[in-house]
Write a structure and sequence with these properties.
With about 475 residues, this protein is an alpha/beta fold. Among the domains are: about 140 residues, Rossmann fold; about 130 residues, Transcription Regulator spoIIAA (2-Layer Sandwich). Helices cover about 35% and strands about 10% of the residues. Strands 1-2-3-4 form a 4-stranded mixed beta sheet. Strands 10-11-12-13 form a 4-stranded parallel beta sheet, covered by helices on one side. Strands 5-8-9 form a 3-stranded parallel beta sheet. Strand 11, helix 12 and strand 12 form a beta-alpha-beta unit. The two termini are about 30 Å apart.
C-alpha cells in the first residue's frame, strides 16, 4: 500500500458503476488467491492487473497466478480465464522477458488508458476479442498481435489528473511489518518524471519530461485528503521533489495543519534549512540524498550535476537542524569507474562523518543497467568485480564512528540486470525459477533450461545488436 498507483487504480475502477476492483497480496494475508475485500477468488475476475516496479517480483506474479488456478503461460489459457495485464516502470522499459505470461502490457503512464481498457473488456463478446481489441489502444502492447511499434504513454499535465483522496490506511499497529514504508500516510504525488536525465537512471529517460503540480492543485488535493483519509501524516511522492519551486510552501501548509510530513530522497542541492526544519517539525528524522559516487569527476560524467559542496552542505543543514541521521545512496560498477572512484565513496563518507556529529548510513549498491537509458548498452561488471568493489568500501568504513555500511547482494543485482536487459528467450528461465523460488531457484532454472542466464547482463557483445525493446518509442 506504499505504491500510490494501487490507490489510484483502486479508486478509478471502483468509481465506475460497471466495475469492481479488489486487492490481492502475495504475503501477509490469509490467501494470495483470495481478495482482501470479499475473498473473491482471483480466477473470478475478468482482468487481473499487476504493477511491476521491481524485476524480481515477477516470481511472485507467477506464483500468485498458479495458486489462483490460472495458467501461468498465455498459450495455456482458455476462454474462461481472466485477461492478465501488467504495467509499471519495469515493463514500460522492457516487457519482452515477460511476454510468455502476460496478455497485454501498458507501456508508460496508465492513469487515463485504464478507462479505455475497461470499456473494451466490458463491450467485447469474448476474451480473445477483447485482447485483440486492446492492441488498438495507444500505449498498450499485446505480444500476440505482433505490433511493429508501441508509443509510451506520457501525460503532459498533472494538474487536471484524478488523484485519489480517500486512501486506504492499513489497520495494523505502528511499526508492524505490514505497515507501508512511509507509515500510515496520505500519499500525494507532487512531481512526475525528472529533468536531470542521469545516464544510468530509468526515471530520467522513460518518464520525461518533468512535470510538477501547481501549489493550488496540491492544496486542493490535500484538503480533500484531510477529510477523506483517516491519518495525520502526509508523504510527498515524486522524483526530484526539490525541483518544485514552492516545496517549502507545501511543507509549511501541511505542518501548519498539524500533520506529520515525510519525503523520500532529495537532491542535495535542493536541501534548504527551512525545508529541513519543516520536515523535523513533521516528524522526519532522517535525510536521504543520493550522491551516486564519491568522485566529483565521475558524478559529472554520469550527468548527476552535484558538487561535493552540495552534498556537504546538505549534511551540514541536516546536522544543524537536529536530524538524527543521513542516508547516502551510492552506486558501484558504473561504466568508466576507476579503482580510485570506488575508494572516493568511502573517503567521502568518512569525511562527512568526521565533520558532522550525525549518524550516516552509506548504502552502496551495484550498477544495474536499464533499458532505454544512455547506458543501455553498457554491460554490468562481473560478480567477482562487484564483490571486490563492495568489499573495498566496507573495509574502509569498518569501525568508523557513527557510520553504517549496507549494500545489495550482487546476485540480486545480477538477476535484476538480466531481467532488465533480457529478451523473450529468458521466459522459460523465469517460469522454472518461479517453481523453486529464492536465489537458488534462479540457479536451478539456469541449469534445467541450459540457458546461461547469469551471463546475459555481462555480455557486452550481445548488447551491440538490435535491442529487444527497440519497438517502444
Amino acid at each position: 500500500m506504499t505504491n500510490l498507483a494501487t490507490h489510484l487504480f483502486y479508486s478509478l475502477i471502483n468509481r465506475r458503476e460497471d466495475a469492481s476492483c479488489e486487492r490481492y497480496f502475495r504475503y501477509g494475508t490469509y490467501s494470495q488467491s483470495k481478495s482482501v475485500e470479499s475473498r473473491r477468488p482471483l480466477k473470478s475476475n475478468h482482468i487481473i492487473g499487476f504493477s511491476l516496479s521491481y524485476e524480481e517480483d515477477i516470481l511472485n506474479v507467477l506464483q500468485m497466478l498458479n495458486d489462483g488456478d490460472i495458467p501461468v503461460l498465455v498459450e495455456s489459457r482458455t476462454t474462461e480465464d481472466p485477461i492478465v495485464i501488467m504495467g509499471g516502470p519495469v515493463v514500460s522499459a522492457n516487457p519482452e522477458p515477460y511476454v510468455d505470461f502476460i496478455d497485454a502490457f501498458v507501456i508508460g503512464e496508465g492513469d487515463e488508458v485504464i478507462q479505455e481498457i475497461l470499456d473494451i473488456v466490458v463491450e467485447c463478446e469474448s476474451r480473445q476479442h477483447a485482447i485483440t481489441s486492446l492492441a488498438a489502444i495507444s500505449g498498450v502492447y499485446v505480444p500476440s498481435e505482433n505490433q511493429v511499434t508501441v508509443k509510451r504513454l506520457i501525460i503532459p499535465d498533472l494538474n487536471p489528473l484524478f488523484h485519489p483522496t480517500g486512501q486506504i490506511i492499513p489497520d495494523v499497529p505502528d511499526g508492524d511489518e505490514l505497515e507501508p514504508v512511509f507509515g500510515k500516510s496520505f500519499l500525494i504525488e507532487i512531481t512526475r518524471g525528472c529533468g536531470h536525465s542521469c545516464k544510468f537512471c530509468l526515471v530520467g529517460h522513460i518518464c520525461r519530461p518533468r512535470r510538477i503540480r501547481s501549489l493550488e492543485s496540491v492544496t486542493e488535493i490535500l484538503e480533500k485528503g484531510f477529510k477523506e483519509t483517516p491519518t495525520k501524516k502526509v508523504s510527498l511522492i515524486g522524483s526530484s521533489l526539490g525541483d518544485m519551486d514552492r516545496l517549502d510552501d507545501v511543507a509549511d501548509y501541511i505542518v501548519s495543519r498539524g500533520y506529520g510530513l515525510s519525503v523520500p530522497s532529495l537532491r542535495a542541492d535542493s536541501v534548504t534549512s527551512s525545508l529541513v526544519s519543516r520536515l523535523i517539525e513533521g516528524g522526519q528524522r532522517t535525510l536521504t540524498i543520493a550522491p551516486e559516487t564519491g568522485s566529483s569527476a565521475l558524478r559529472k560524467e554520469m550527468g548527476k550535476g552535484l558538487l561535493d559542496e552540495d552534498i556537504e552542505n546538505a549534511v551540514k543543514i541536516a546536522t544543524e537542524a537536529g536530524m538524527y541521521s543521513v542516508k547516502l545512496y551510492y552506486i558501484v560498477g558504473l561504466p568508466g569507474e576507476s579503482e580510485q572512484d570506488v575508494l572516493e565513496i568511502a573517503h567521502q563518507t568518512k569525511q562527512l562523518a568526521s565533520k558532522f556529529n550525525i549518524r550516516i548510513t552509506s548504502s552502496v549498491n551495484p550498477y544495474i543497467p536499464k533499458a532505454h537509458t544512455r547506458f543501455q548498452r553498457e554491460p554490468q561488471p562481473s560478480l567477482e568485480e562487484i564483490r571486490m568493489k563492495l568489499a573495498s568500501i566496507e573495509t574502509n568504513l569498518r569501525n568508523v564512528a557513527r557510520v553504517t555500511f549496507e549494500s545489495l547482494d550482487p546476485r540480486h543485482a545480477r538477476i535484476q540486470a538480466v531481467l532488465s536487459l533480457g529478451d523473450r528467450s529468458i521466459g522459460r528461465v523465469i517460469h522454472v525459477a518461479s517453481k523453486h523460488g529464492g536465489l537458488s531457484g534462479w540457479r536451478k532454472a539456469e541449469k534445467e533450461t541450459g540457458t546461461t542466464f547469469f551471463d546475459i547482463a555481462h555480455n557486452g557483445v550481445r548488447l551491440r545488436n538490435q535491442l529487444p525493446w527497440s519497438f517502444i518509442t
